Amino acid sequence: MLFRSWENGVKLFQRAVDVTGDNYVGRFNLAHELRESGDTAGAIRQLESAVLIQPDSGLAHDELGQLLGKQGRTGEALAELRKAEVSLPDDAALHYHIGLLLGTAGHPEQAADELSQSVRLDPANADAHRNLAISQAMMDRLPEAVAEFRIAVSLKSDDATLRFNLALALINLGQKQEAIEQLQEALKLNPNFPEAQAALTAARTKLATDEHR
Under CATH, which architecture does the 157-213 domain have? Predict the structure, then answer.
């Protein structure tokens, strides 16, 4: 069924909840509509009710954890995501959500563990490879980070920012020529990318200096 606006969707599912009361499906659907309409607080309230009605719903705990994380309520968010993990232990998206939350909270090692599980379960998720690489780079595990960035680029070759990230990791590994090539590709994809242009100029200068020593 198509709705002419999110407001109509919210009204429909609100009416269903009003009629059925403690109905898990109604509250979960209402939460979805509220989230899409921008009412995060309202969505959280409905999901909190949903998980009370159906405590083993991994999907509801996952959704609730993501929304709490966006509000900066990291501890509560992680608790909800861990509850989701009980019923969804092999869900690649869930491990990705946990990894993102832990990375944002400043725990790169734990984030890398979760993101490693995510890419194992879903090797085609370029963003999971990207964020795993970022976590590894934060721990100075640069060869591993470069390997993950390469996989991400192979999956999402038209992403200028991803190529820029790979280039920075390559520069830190001393692989300036390949970094220059990646920065050139990034600028082809996005000519208005001043950070990439600055990095390209610096890499070329450093490479020229090294060659004349």
Answer: Alpha Horseshoe (1.25)
Residue type for position 174: G
pLDDT in tens, 1-16: 444 444 555 555 555 5
Architecture of domain 1-80: Alpha Horseshoe (1.25)
For domain 90-155, which architecture applies? Answer: Alpha Horseshoe (1.25)
Q: Do the first three CATH levels of 1-80 and 157-213 match, i.e. the same topology?
A: yes
Quote the pTM value. Answer: 0.87
